[in-house]
Amino acid sequence: MGVHAAVTVRAREFALARTLAVAPSARVTLEPVVPFGAGFAPAVRIRADDPDLVTDLVAAEADVRAVEPIDRGDDEALLGVEWDDRPRPIPATVTDAGGQCTEAVAVDGSWHLGLRFPTHDHVAAWYGDCRDRGSPSPSSGFATTRPPTSATPAPSPTPSGRRSRRPSRRGSSRCRGR
Question: Where is the composition biased (Basic residues) (predicted)?
Fold first, then answer.
């Protein structure tokens, strides 16, 4: 089934910190791409008043080797990005705990990440690993939810014939970062 976690981290703890500091109103999205290699986020979508400026800022980032424009609109650009081989603490701890990043959007200087883990125990292992390694942990906390499945029980009939709702088995929790 899997557990989905919504996490917010500061830009400096994930990627493109300088770009987001200089152009805080830009919306940057790491495109969802099926990974075939060990590369980190090969496509980045930018929405901004001046996408050319933000493209130049991305190209100037210390951890970016090359940027190639793929598509361009009035207020957005899709870029092919080649990153350096420097390890990134958040992605490393997520993959080490058996998780995957399903979404990454930067807004107002913070990254909002969608993560998926096999179980709540994997989420706990990831969070503990962040602390143990001294890696950045979520700055504003995180929430986990189980997605709905076809295995969710249907409402059962009551003696009056009306349907009652069983309590959902889908758990959720709220944890705070350090």
Answer: 162-178
Ordered DSSP codes for 104-168: EEEETTEEEEEEEESSHHHHHHHHHHHHHHT----SS-EEEEPPP-TTSPPPEEPTTS-EEPPPP
Q: Where are the domains of the chain?
A: 3-143
Rounded Cα distance between 43 and 33, Å, is 8
Mean pLDDT of 115-138: 82
Q: Are 35 and 49 in contact (CB under 8 A)?
A: no
Q: pTM above the 0.85 mark?
A: no
For 11, half-sphere exposure in the C-beta direction (CA atoms, 13 angstrom radius) is 22
Angle in degrees, 0-180, between the axes of helices 120-133 and 89-96, rounded to the nearest 10: 140
51-90: pLDDT as tens digits: 999 999 999 999 899 999 999 999 999 999 988 887 777 8
